[in-house]
Amino acid sequence: MTISIDRTGHFVDEMNIAFTDIHVSIDPDLLGDVLESAGVRISFDGFSDGRFLTMARQLRLRGYTGHICAAGEIVPDQFPMALKVGVDSVEISEALARRCTQEQWVAMGQRIQGNYQSRLT
Q1: What does the pLDDT read at residue 120?
Q2: Could you report the per-residue pLDDT of 56-73, keeping only the tens digit for each?
Q3: 3-state SS, residue 13
């Protein structure tokens, strides 16, 4: 079973979105096939695999406006970067949710506010 975490870092019961599942190893040239989907779930194997960030960013650069979910062993420290590149939610295992509490996710989700990049625009 997985735990879904929304943009604010709160654990939610379930996302009622029809996701198209892709793996981070997908050929980037095939991303155009999912641009019409309501939601795209990018799965990856471990927290050290940052390709999910690249995939999310590539989807946004190609004009995707739907919901992007990162599904894998992401840790709270990676949450702000995931939000910055366009991820809307994450899915983690119950075991990881026991180690990384909702309070940690909420705190890290707030770190995207007030960063130096927002002051440059």
Answers
A1: 57
A2: 999 999 999 999 999 999
A3: coil
User: CA 71 to CA 52: how far, in whole Å?
Assistant: 9
H/E stretch holding 24: none
Dist. CA 3–CA 14, nearest whole Å: 8
**Chain mean pLDDT for the chain:** 90
Structure tokens at 23: 């793996």
Distances in Å between the Cα of 45 and the Cα atoms of 18, 59, 72 are 22, 20, 6
Amino acid at 30: L
| Strand positions, DSSP E, the chain | 2-5, 11-12, 19-23, 39-43, 67-71, 89-93
Write out the two tokens for 100.
């990384």
Distance CA 21, CA 31 (A): 11
Q: What pTM did the predictor assign? A: 0.89
